[in-house]
Amino acid sequence: MNSSHSKLTDWGLEHISIANHDTILDVGCGGGRTVNKLAAIATQGKVYGVDYSEESVAFTKRTNARWIEAGRVEIRQASVSQLPFPDNSFDVITAVETHYFWPDLPADLREVLRVLRLAAHSSSLPKSTKEPTRPPLNSSKNTLNLSV
Ligand SMILES: C[S@@+](CC[C@H](N)C(=O)[O-])C[C@H]1O[C@@H](n2cnc3c(N)ncnc32)[C@H](O)[C@@H]1O
Question: Which fold has domain 2-146?
């Protein structure tokens, strides 16, 4: 899961603005590769990951052990439907290859927006083996929702 999504994730992350002090959430963090990339970009910030699967949480914690020890990453077991964070907690929220598992997409997106600090934009990419071609997000504060 990590390696197959890595290229798309790299492409997506290149197209959003991430400041080095941003507080970031990755929803459905899976194996933790996106959390790892985000922590390397937001060098003065903090990255949170949530996943409803105990196995994915354990995997993400292993992948990010160094960052967790440094206090730069925190991983929680939680569903997108009930995010364990106060309103307006995050500057950037990512969700890669996960939204099609969410139980109630409109309500779950509202929950994501609840914890996002400013106006959000969402981009969902069609399934394709080719390089994604849809225009990327251009807001400074984004929700990035990628699927191939
Ligand atoms: C295909 S994997 C993608 C993982 C990772 N984002 C990546 O790109 O490698 C989908 C992930 O979404 C998680 N997931 C599915 N439904 C979820 C929900 N309702 N809340 C939180 N995570 C969920 C799964 O447990 C799984 O780890």
Answer: Rossmann fold (3.40.50)
Which tokens sit at 108? Answer: 């779950």
pLDDT average per 10 residues of sequence, the chain (148 residues): 77 94 98 97 98 98 98 98 98 97 98 85 44 41 52
Q: List phi, psi (to 5°) of 109.
A: -65, -35
The residues spanned by each domain of the chain are: 2-146
- Concatenated DSSP letters of 83-110: -SS-TT-BSEEEEES-GGG-SSHHHHHH
Please state the pTM of the whole predicted model. 0.84
Pocket probe mutation, ligand 1, options 13, 52, 99, max atoms within 8 Å of Cβ: 52
Cβ of residue 30 lying under 6 Å from some atom of ligand 1: yes
Query: Residue with structure tokens 């990755």?
Result: 26
